[in-house]
């Protein structure tokens, strides 16, 4: 599944706030501008500001969702932070990142990337047994990867993008048809 979430706005007013005589609060401006583009995407084609939103001819807005915040598994939203916080209660783990990995049936499933404390170890089975009573089944990571060190930004922050790139470089990132 892609890192994009599709959203359609229906029954919206097709006016643009910058053409309106009345002052419009900033929070309403984006909504109104989005609905105008959704109503008639061909009329405003090519005039999109430098944002990460992509417009399709059907009038559906595809906005990138930060993949680090959520993935969709079988139609259910899964928030990695919830899983990461539970996993970090295990004494052997020092860092955890949960990513949504492609899956042919469910769209995405959880992939847990873990690093252990020095001198400690833990198995995927132990982590799965710890998580089972605490999480719904669709939230359980389907795969566990253990790294010696998490990739980090220059500021020392773990970003899901860097983790995914590291897994791809090592050949550990699953392809949709390879995951079962």
TrEMBL record:
Q: Name one Pfam family in it.
A: AMP-binding_C
Q: What InterPro entries does its record include?
A: AMP-bd_C (IPR025110), AMP-bd_C_sf (IPR045851)
Q: Which family does it belong to?
A: Belongs to the ATP-dependent AMP-binding enzyme family.
What is this protein called in UniProt? 3-methylmercaptopropionyl-CoA ligase
Highest taxon of the lineage? Bacteria
Keywords, in A-Z order = Ligase, Magnesium, Metal-binding
Q: Tell me the segments the record calls region Disordered.
A: 1-50
Reaction(s) catalysed by this chain, per the record, are: 3-(methylsulfanyl)propanoate + ATP + CoA = 3-(methylsulfanyl)propanoyl-CoA + AMP + diphosphate
Assembly and interaction partners: Homodimer.
Task: Drop me one GO molecular function for this one.
Answer: metal ion binding
Please give the biological process terms from Gene Ontology that the record holds.
fatty acid metabolic process
Q: Where is the AMP-binding enzyme C-terminal domain?
A: 82-157
Name the Enzyme Commission number(s) assigned to this protein: 6.2.1.44
Composition bias type Low complexity, residue spans: 28-50
Q: Which cofactor does it need?
A: Mg(2+)
């Amino acid at each position: 599944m892609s890192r994009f979430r599709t959203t359609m706005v229906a029954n919206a007013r097709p006016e643009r706030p910058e053409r309106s005589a009345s002052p419009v609060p900033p929070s309403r401006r984006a909504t109104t501008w989005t609905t105008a583009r959704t109503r008639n995407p061909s009329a405003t084609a090519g005039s999109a500001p430098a944002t990460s939103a992509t417009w399709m001819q059907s009038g559906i807005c595809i906005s990138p969702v930060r993949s680090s915040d959520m993935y969709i598994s079988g139609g259910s939203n899964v928030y990695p932070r919830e899983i990461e916080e539970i996993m970090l209660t295990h004494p052997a783990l020092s860092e955890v990142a949960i990513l949504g990995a492609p899956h042919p049936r469910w769209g995405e499933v959880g992939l847990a990337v873990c690093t252990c404390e020095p001198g400690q170890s833990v198995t995927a089975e132990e982590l799965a047994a710890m998580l089972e009573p605490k999480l719904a089944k669709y939230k359980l990571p389907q795969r566990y990867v253990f790294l010696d060190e998490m990739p980090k930004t220059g500021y020392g922050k773990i970003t899901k993008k860097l983790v995914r790139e590291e897994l791809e470089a090592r050949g550990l990132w699953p392809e949709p048809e390879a995951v079962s």
